[in-house]
């Protein structure tokens, strides 16, 4: 099955579609099945979605979203932090998610009076076991269980080669501390640079988790043109966790606004063995061929190896020298044999 996500009207998705009749004709004459989650009410999970006018937000027993700290809920946006120093705020879904395959669309805006490199710190989107647990990582718990997507606007590590603002993902089982000094570099699965601050329009991202694959797409120009930011396989996330968003400011600040968080269920077939698993018992983990810290941001959205260290340079030079010596010896032997053959003819 091939899955696509489209945007109908002002909704967001991973690809743009032609009119519905033509789409049905296309599906009729091909074997490709396309799941249109965006704009399709039956796939939208309202109990996990945060939308205007933000009904169901508060501390009452019937509320589906609860907030903490400096968070301010208005009729137009949810402001996690104002453009003021040393603020923290968060908003969390009170209903655990028991979907195996899902997609979360986030409409947000980061803006403020700070000039270049004089703003911070950013927004985090969470899918975690814990909720409303304040901490040092964008206003939330550092040793979390689950998935975190960071929209990081402040560069702590001046020596790093990543360009900020920078969007990146981390999966944690509660054992990994967040590396503040390196902006989470040691645990990062993948990421991309994106100029998302002080736009005249809202910015968007979509987080898809399906059959062990985590994909993050971004739309920062409001042109319905999605760019791939992260695409990682081998990701294991349990069900029964909570979605949330948090933000923090330090000595530098910004307005961190969430306009909407819309959760969609993806209709995906699983094997009988997968269906028989207790997905609430799965440990958050990632199977990678190499360590996440060996990744460096590439402007194309891909990743390349880390820069050559002195030790690596030495090994390369040694291998090159050995290669030259071997080629020289082989060449000398071949030349000597040819000389001996030529003497026989004379």
TrEMBL record:
GO molecular-function term, one example from the UniProt record: D-mannose binding
UniProt KW keywords: Disulfide bond, Glycoprotein, Golgi apparatus, Lectin, Membrane, Metal-binding, Signal, Transmembrane, Transmembrane helix
CC terms in the record's Gene Ontology section: COPII-coated ER to Golgi transport vesicle; endoplasmic reticulum membrane; endoplasmic reticulum-Golgi intermediate compartment; Golgi membrane
CDD domains cross-referenced by the UniProt entry: lectin_VIP36_VIPL
Membrane topology qualifier: Single-pass type I membrane protein; Single-pass membrane protein
Main localization (coarse): membrane
Pfam family, one: Lectin_leg-like
Protein's GO biological process: endoplasmic reticulum to Golgi vesicle-mediated transport
Signal peptide (residue range): 1-34
Ranges of residues in domain L-type lectin-like: 42-266
Transmembrane segments: 313-335
Cell compartment(s), UniProt: Endomembrane system; Golgi apparatus membrane
InterPro entries: ConA-like_dom_sf, Intracellular_Lectin-GPT, Lectin_leg, VIP36_lectin
Gene3D superfamilies in UniProt: 2.60.120.200
Record's protein name: Vesicular integral-membrane protein VIP36-like isoform X2
Organism of provenance: Salvelinus namaycush
Organism classification: Eukaryota, Metazoa, Chordata, Craniata, Vertebrata
